[in-house]
Design brief:
Elements lengths: L1 E3 L6 E5 L6 E3 L7 E5 L5 E6 L8 E6 L7 E5 L1 E5 L5 E6 L8 E6 L6 E2 L7 E5 L5 E6 L7 E6 L5 E3 L7 E6 L5 E6 L6 E6 L6 E5 L17
Antiparallel strand pairs: 1-2, 2-3, 4-5, 5-6, 6-7, 8-9, 9-10, 10-11, 12-13, 13-14, 14-15, 16-17, 17-18, 18-19
């Protein structure tokens, strides 16, 4: 599922790669950063479609012409691989406790995971044992980190002086791909999820004008 900006199909669109069939789930151009739940029947996303332009979190059934339900405020939802909850960047119901948090698909059971408001772009590991995320506040520029969900321990995974962002954990949990301009061009890199030497995978064509608007997913 992806954000579609074509004039005749703005909103969130699902693509069946086997058949080429497309299904349009929403009709607002502002709808962004969609994430499937583990069962493949619900999509969480974020949008500032409302008149106050605040970023809200929504959940919609994976079917055409369904109404999305707002479940809270925040950005960058990423659904847990096996539980009915997703991680996101935001605050609690009182506007405090900002950072990476998680909530259920219905908006309840809101839990804090990290405590730095600028932590963003969370991505679950395949077992849910840890999350990776981007933060530009912890060490002065955008870097990739992981947080162990059992104890909240945060580990810094990159240190380049450039922009490292948009992490995506590999299906076996052993690697984290990320977007970076550390070599002078925008490319996709990967670093071991336990820490270590990063390696460049491939260079991207064109320019990444706003890295905060990008996300990746690592699939088999």
């Amino acid at each position: 599922v992806f954000r579609d900006l074509n004039d005749d199909s703005r909103g969130l669109t699902a693509l069946d790669t086997a058949t080429g069939l497309k299904l349009r789930f929403t009709t607002f151009a502002e709808d962004s950063f969609p994430s499937w739940n583990g069962l493949g029947n619900l999509v969480a996303f974020t949008s500032n479609r409302d008149g106050d332009r605040r970023w809200r979190l929504y959940v919609v059934w994976a079917d055409v012409n369904n109404e999305a339900t707002a479940v809270g405020f925040g950005q960058y939802p990423d659904w847990h691989p096996s539980e009915d909850r997703f991680a996101y960047q935001g605050c609690d119901e009182t506007g405090n406790g900002c950072g990476i948090r998680s909530m259920s698909g219905s908006g309840g059971d809101n839990r804090g995971i990290t405590s730095v408001a600028a932590d963003m772009q969370p991505d679950w590991s395949p077992t849910g044992a840890f999350l990776t995320f981007t933060s530009e506040a912890r060490d002065g520029n955008p870097e990739i980190y992981r947080v162990d969900t059992a104890n909240g321990q945060v580990t810094r995974l990159t240190e380049s002086g450039g922009i490292d962002a948009a992490p995506a954990v590999s299906p076996d949990g052993g690697w984290v791909a990320f977007l970076s301009n550390r070599s002078g061009v925008w490319a996709v890199w990967a670093v071991p999820s336990s820490g270590g030497e990063a390696q460049q995978l491939f260079v991207l064509e064109g320019n990444v004008s706003v890295w905060q608007e990008f996300e990746m997913q690592w699939i088999n």
